[in-house]
Design goal:
The protein has 26 helices and 28 strands. Helix content is 28%, strand content 17%. Bound molecules: iron/sulfur cluster.
């Protein structure tokens, strides 16, 4: 499927255009958009020729035209009216605080103000804030990165989602690769660990179902009974933040009972002796005390995993979002290396396959431009998971550099998704903070903006994309003209660069230029990527999606079975799969995995004041906070809108009945919700869903309760290590 094909009837006024869903989801679906003669998109559908998309879209994106053509879209630049204070606004009445402005006026004013801030406080006082509102290569990070590098703005450490798990995986395997979805049907056991396949990785589900028709069992390990857990053969409701203990307990049983694959371990791994010694202490009895499972359950799980072949693990990023989430991912990732299941077609594990895509990031992002900035050096790095701190405290110590005086938000609804929301909002309300937000809708974050700039959806701009749930490079063609005056990230930051007087030719690059650079790892002295050498912009434009090749690594996805980490060198310092990490040791950390209870857990020091473990979970029908403002999507989540799910034991102990108004609080904030007495959570655990503050009673969401504490590996957010108390309101 190329850029655009006419309908089979020659006289048909319809075009079908190959695009890619750019929402933050492992599936990266190939989406065919039908466009009529007036240039309006009239239909979206999954591409039937894409082996993972298989012709269908999830419930979120099947209705995508409701989003693209929503009357709520921002279609013109807006400026805060003079004298109007920043703060949460009532949904539907935001325009009382803003006035329309032309793009030229807005860009001139923004460029002037950024220059003033840079002159007065230094360029590092400008902070970009973006994440995966789009995961297209160009939209996620290209012209924006060039712009901020050249400006000398603070660098953003993008840790809010996947950094702990990603770094942990790489400590073991060196590269983020995993079992292909298409090979799951060969599995006889599938364990979804912290992954809600049916809710937010739906294109893996048909392969899981195929495996189950072939006799496979599905086990789900998750403290919340997700849709996937409901459909599983066995749901193991582990206590939040204790995954490392369970993984180490499984290792203990495997080694105690001689169920490991010694040939594989000898050939492929490093540090087995040290690991064997370490797991000796993780007896089923001790692990049961931490995890809330019974010793029998742990024994049964370990035996089923180690003796069923092939067995595959589908981990997702839920595991990493606790204080010791990096170690948890690292420990779980080691399991297939003990059983040798990487050698079995349909075995192995999957967390993310993003390491398979080796774009030429130096050419796309141009980090060298930091040396051309007024700083003449790389700018300081600010962790996005501590936005509240960055806006309220950073700069108090001289060595930290300047306070943040300008914030540029794009691809993110920071006021809704960042932890420690009260601190974030205090920062955003600062009169002296200049805030620009590039967005598709009026969100919690735009309420605090000085300028709001209208952004395109993936139907309205060109991009290319990899995936973290499959091995296809894809071309997303612009299917329709941008609605109103909405503009892409590439356009916006090129315009600003010109106004700031940046003369480097990279700011003249078109999307086509950047696509060519991204696919050309041979330029600028970068090593060629054997997986992507065959993919040219022309071929990609013609075919829409092309599978990676792995001849140089592990076989060929087009022919032989793809069995990553089954033989040969592994790209870690030792060249082996690492149970024992010299890198961690050198950094003063424990080189082996171990279990340590999160400070905010029932085993922590504050559990007597805040005895309930809180899961600020994600909706199946939203993408983090994206889609939450659309009525069709909200109605699919109606059962848990503004609800606090609480087990009957905990409800009874507090005199709470289903439907009661409840207050939920800790030292960081409090929230009013309605009780939903539910067995989806175990006793001692409560769950509330991420939503927009402005769509919630009291104007706040679950992140008033979450902390800015960081994970042990990767310095990522720890949403699922949150203690609270609950009472009838
Ligand atoms: S959100 Fe995920 S499953 Fe849904 S269309 Fe996009 S990539 Fe596919």
């Amino acid at each position: 499927m190329g850029a655009s094909t006419q309908d089979s009837v020659a006289s048909s006024p319809f075009r079908v255009v190959h695009t890619v869903c750019s929402h933050d989801c492992p599936d990266s679906c190939a989406v065919l958009v039908t466009v009529n003669a007036e240039g309006r998109a009239v239909k979206v559908q999954g591409d039937p020729s894409h082996p993972v998309t298989q012709g269908f879209l999830c419930g979120k994106v099947a209705k995508y035209l409701d989003r693209v053509y929503s009357p709520q879209r921002i279609l013109h630049p807006l400026r805060r009216k003079p004298g109007v204070a920043k703060g949460p606004l009532v949904k539907g009445r935001e325009m009382e605080s803003f006035e329309p402005v032309s793009w030229d006026e807005a860009l001139d004013a923004i460029a002037t103000r950024l220059q003033q801030v840079a002159d007065e406080h230094g360029p590092e006082s400008i902070l970009p804030y973006s994440y995966a509102g789009t995961i297209g290569v160009l939209g996620y990070g290209s012209m924006d990165r060039r712009f901020f590098h050249r400006l000398g703005a603070s660098q953003l450490d993008r840790t809010i989602c996947a950094e702990a798990g990603g770094q942990a995986w790489k400590l073991v395997y060196g590269r983020k690769l995993g079992t292909r979805n298409e090979d799951f049907p060969h599995a006889k056991l599938i364990i979804a660990w912290g992954g809600n396949i049916h809710g937010n990785n739906i294109h893996l589900w048909p392969f899981v179902e195929q495996a189950r028709r072939n006799g496979a069992r599905l086990i789900v390990i998750d403290p919340y009974r997700t849709r996937t857990a409901t459909l599983a053969d066995w749901h193991i409701a582990i206590r939040p933040g204790t995954d490392a203990a369970l993984a180490l307990g499984i290792m203990h049983i495997i080694l105690r009972d001689g169920l490991e694959d010694r040939n594989y371990i000898d050939e492929m791994t490093h540090g087995f002796a040290e690991l064997s010694e370490r797991v000796r202490d993780y007896t089923p009895r001790r692990v049961a005390e931490w995890t809330g499972l019974t010793s029998d359950e742990i024994e049964r799980l370990a035996h089923e995993y180690a003796t069923t072949k092939p067995a595959v693990l589908r981990m997702n990023y839920g595991v990493q979002r606790s204080q010791n989430g990096g170690t948890a991912v690292r420990a779980i990732a080691m399991l297939p290396a003990l059983t040798g299941s990487w050698r079995h077609l349909g075995g192995g594990a999957q967390l993310s396959m993003s390491g398979a895509f080796r774009w030429n990031s130096e050419a796309i992002e141009r980090p060298d431009l930091m040396l051309a900035s007024p700083l003449k050096r790389p700018a300081r790095v600010v962790n996005m998971s501590r936005l509240g701190h960055a806006l309220t405290e950073l700069g108090s110590e001289p060595e930290e550099g300047p306070h943040v005086h300008a914030l540029f938000v794009y691809n993110s609804n920071a006021a809704a998704v960042a932890p420690n929301q009260n601190a974030v909002r205090r920062g955003l309300e600062r009169k002296d903070l200049f805030t620009v937000v590039h967005e598709q809708f009026l969100t919690d974050t735009t309420d605090f903006a000085d300028y709001i700039l209208p952004a395109t959806t993936f139907l309205e701009h060109d991009d290319i994309q990899g995936a973290y749930g499959h091995y296809f490079v894809q071309r997303s063609h612009k299917a329709i003209e941008p609605l109103g005056e909405s503009r892409s990230n590439v356009w916006l930051f090129a315009q600003l660069a010109r106004r700031m007087g940046f003369t480097e030719s990279c700011f003249d690059d078109t999307p086509e230029d950047i696509i060519r650079q991204a696919l050309n790892p041979g330029e600028n002295g970068h090593s060629r990527n054997p997986g992507m050498e065959h993919i040219t912009p022309e071929l990609l434009a013609e075919q829409g999606h092309i599978a990676l090749h792995f001849e140089g690594l592990d076989g060929d996805t087009a022919g032989q079975p793809f069995l990553p980490f089954s033989h040969g060198d592994v790209p870690t310092p030792s060249g082996k799969i690492e149970f024992h990490s010299e890198a961690l040791k050198a950094a003063g950390a424990d080189p082996l995995p171990h279990f340590e209870a999160p400070i905010e857990s029932r085993l922590g020091p504050d559990a007597h004041r805040f005895p309930l473990e809180f899961l600020p979970r994600k909706a199946d029908n939203y993408m983090n906070s994206t889609f939450a403002n659309l009525d069709g999507h909200r109605s699919m989540e109606a059962k848990t809108n503004h609800r606090l799910e609480i087990h009957s034991t905990d409800a009874l102990a507090r005199g709470i009945a289903d439907g009661d108004a409840v207050r939920i609080w800790n030292d960081r904030g409090s929230l009013q919700l309605t009780a939903l007495v539910s067995d989806r959570v175990a006793a001692g655990v409560v769950a509330g869903r991420l939503d927009w503050g402005k769509l919630s009673p009291g104007g706040q969401n679950v992140n008033v309760l979450t902390s800015e504490r960081l994970t042990d590996i990767g310095a990522a957010a720890t949403f699922y290590s949150t203690l609270v108390e609950v009472a009838k309101a």
